[in-house]
């Protein structure tokens, strides 16, 4: 509110057209330049893969001047039909949790903003999973065998498949997704809020289990996207003391980073995974035939026979993240 000699001019024609409008114009010009600067900064930082993101402050400043579409166009040069972004309503969603919270409660494909990569990616948001947590971001899914998961390092880093069906979101995206939600501490440090991860498993007999860890994050490419999971939940998991998930580096048929010096698990199992030895879990193994028993060379979850005595192969598996969103 502008006070001039004690008189409020906030709502007057004079104030808006003669004072505010020019100011607004100037301000948006300045912000326009700033948008360019942000893009430049992001490009610069992307080059050396150091941290770069559109901070809340940046966004709040520019959103007052530019429409969502303009921001997307200006900052990202995004070429897809921008109507896809109509539901964003002035906010760049960074995970499915806040998309659900915004009222989009149907499972489906949504664009999310990877702030450290300065780009959008499409993911399947699971909004229906029976849990107190709603809005899970799917990072891997197998459901019909139509996508070949026998691929090399570059594909596993970049991602492949189709979010409407089977896909692997890509290690670089997963690494960034595990660092999406940050809060500033009192001392000005950045605190990363690691998401939870769920492994959604169902076999050909319809037996299903949801295995959840409270915290998930990946290390960077420098340490081959080492897997970190902490806090195995026993809520849906009364069969074992632990799950067959190991905190190992990622391996692919053309890159052996597993923990077994005498084996090349990814080559033998024909897929990429965080292999410890070759006999634990491998949710990227070959898709099993109808009603087949679980085999080492296929999608694997060691100990499944304790869930289902038949030891029936898994027909559906999905890995998904739940971000606890801290409102500023
Ligand atoms: Ca090895």
Automatic annotation (TrEMBL):
The keyword Disulfide bond applies. It comes from Clavelina lepadiformis (Light-bulb sea squirt). SMART domains: FBG. Residues 87-325 form the Fibrinogen C-terminal domain. This is Fibrinogen C-terminal domain-containing protein. It comes from the Eukaryota. The keyword Oxidoreductase does not apply. Residues 1-30 form the signal peptide. Keywords: Disulfide bond, Signal. Gene3D superfamilies: Gamma Fibrinogen, chain A, domain 1, Gamma-fibrinogen Carboxyl Terminal Fragment, domain 2.
């Amino acid at each position: 509110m502008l006070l001039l000699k004690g008189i409020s001019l906030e709502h007057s024609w004079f104030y808006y057209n003669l004072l505010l409008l020019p100011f607004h114009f100037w301000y948006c010009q300045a912000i326009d330049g700033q948008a360019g600067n942000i893009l430049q900064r992001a490009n610069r930082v992307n080059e050396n893969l150091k941290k770069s993101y559109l901070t809340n402050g940046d966004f709040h400043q520019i959103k007052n001047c530019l429409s969502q579409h303009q921001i997307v166009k200006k900052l990202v040069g995004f070429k897809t039909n921008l109507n896809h972004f109509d539901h964003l309503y002035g906010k760049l969603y960074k995970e499915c949790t806040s998309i659900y919270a915004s009222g989009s409660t149907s499972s489906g494909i949504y664009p999310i903003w990877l702030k450290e990569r300065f780009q959008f990616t499409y993911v399947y948001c699971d909004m229906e999973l029976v849990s107190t947590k709603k809005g899970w971001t799917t990072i891997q899914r197998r459901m019909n065998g139509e996508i070949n998961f026998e691929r090399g390092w570059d594909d596993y880093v970049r991602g492949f498949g189709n979010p409407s069906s089977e896909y692997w979101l890509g290690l670089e995206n997963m690494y960034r997704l595990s660092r999406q939600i940050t809060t500033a501490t009192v001392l000005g440090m950045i605190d990363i809020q690691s998401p939870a991860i769920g492994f959604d498993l169902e076999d050909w007999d319809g037996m299903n289990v949801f295995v959840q860890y409270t915290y998930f994050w990946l290390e960077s490419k420098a340490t081959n996207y080492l897997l970190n999971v902490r806090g195995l939940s026993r809520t849906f998991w009364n069969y074992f003391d632990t799950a067959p998930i190991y905190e190992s580096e990622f391996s692919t048929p053309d890159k052996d980073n597993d923990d077994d010096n005498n084996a090349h698990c990814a080559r033998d199992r024909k897929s990429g995974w965080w292999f410890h030895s070759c006999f634990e879990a491998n949710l990227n193994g070959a898709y099993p035939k109808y009603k087949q028993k679980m085999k080492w060379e296929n999608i694997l979850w060691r100990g499944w026979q304790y869930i289902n005595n038949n030891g029936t192969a898994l027909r559906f598996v999905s890995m998904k993240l739940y971000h606890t969103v801290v409102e500023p």
